[in-house]
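Usage example:
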Amino acid sequence: MGTATAQSDDITETDIVIVGAGPVGLFAVFELGLLDLKCRLIDILDRPGGQCTELYPEKPIYDIPAWPEISGQGLTDRLMEQIAPFDPQFQFNTMVTALERLEDGSFLVSTDDGTKVSAKVVVVAAGGGSFQPKRPPIAGIEAFEGKSVFYSVRRMEDFRDHDIVIVGGGDSALDWTLALAPVARSLSLVHRRDAFRGAPDSVNKMRALVDAGQIDLHIGQVAHLSGTDGQLDRISIKDKGGDLVDVACTRMLPFFGLTMKLGPIAEWGINLNENLISVDTEKFQTSEPGIFAIGDINTYPGKLKLILSGFHEAALMAHAAKKHIAPDERIVFQYTTSSTSLQKKLGV
Amino acid sequence: MAKITYITHDGTQHAVDAPNGSTVMENAIKNAVPGIEAECGGACACATCHVYVDEAWTQKTGEPEAMEEDMLDFAYEVQPNSRLSCQIKVTDELDGLVVRVPERQA
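Running the assembly step on the lines above writes:
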């Protein structure tokens, strides 16, 4: 973490930046909102909910107090409803890359889309880390990444007139097969089995392209990559019978789902303990004053990785964050049931 | 109760007494069998508890259901006897089960 002065006028201002829009990050908006603090949540995913909506949207959770059974999506929807009165700002599809402390003690948060946000307090609620594309288990693939192996398509033009190989059986693999087929010199879709997880309509369209001879479908697993200086020229596919088939390939797009990685948080100068952020249990503050960590990403003696523990941490953190921002202001502890001023904030 | 033997990639055998109703993954985690990560905690939402069921036992453990088969797409070196261990429930029938842990989880 460096020290700098805010200069550019392309900086969005807020009271609190919350890194991660999972259930704990969302509930922090509520607790901070009751104390009149405005939040901006930044998340690498394209929607709120974190692991709840990314990993198990339909699966029931049984240990949320007063909800004998609720799905990951249901919990997220209700949290969004609960925090709506506080008008949180969301910045999705964005990864926080750097954190700088400014001269006045506030923070400048940089993201991978080039935007900057200034905030008085940063709350890391990043769960298991940021979701990033999973690297397929193919020997030597690292050498080709960013040059001829890509995990997303930024510009379709970069794929024009290439021999494209797409690997995977879900919607990403199918959608990009359909989108890139018209611009490719050749396109091969490789999947482990002849059944696809993607939308049936996309599967039908893909099979029609195969039948028309416009693309190739290979059932098997990528076994070997060949090329020089990061540029692929062909790959070998091991089919079900164990035979190797060579396919021309100058651009490969593997879609093997997402995995969680700590990512740039490791470079923010805060104390870590085995990839988790060490905090105290009074304020849930990190080794850096003004940076807090709540939910699965933090660690302290007795820590339990439960959503309900994260909710508790959010409440205590919010009061500590308020004191950090306004040390001389007296915080009157109030209940939403009886406080007219809190009810006004909630719009009830 | 069933005895389950996990054979890790280096050939080490880990024999474990597993209670009925628990999963093969849970018993691996509880007994610190190396090589089984179970990142999602048993929700069939990742593919990091992948095992190879010994050929002699594949009939008794049965076939993966559609959701598990979908998740296996994300696993490393999937073979016909590949299963996600969080989806294999322990019964008396499985006493003596042998599973092999792959070289790496995805």
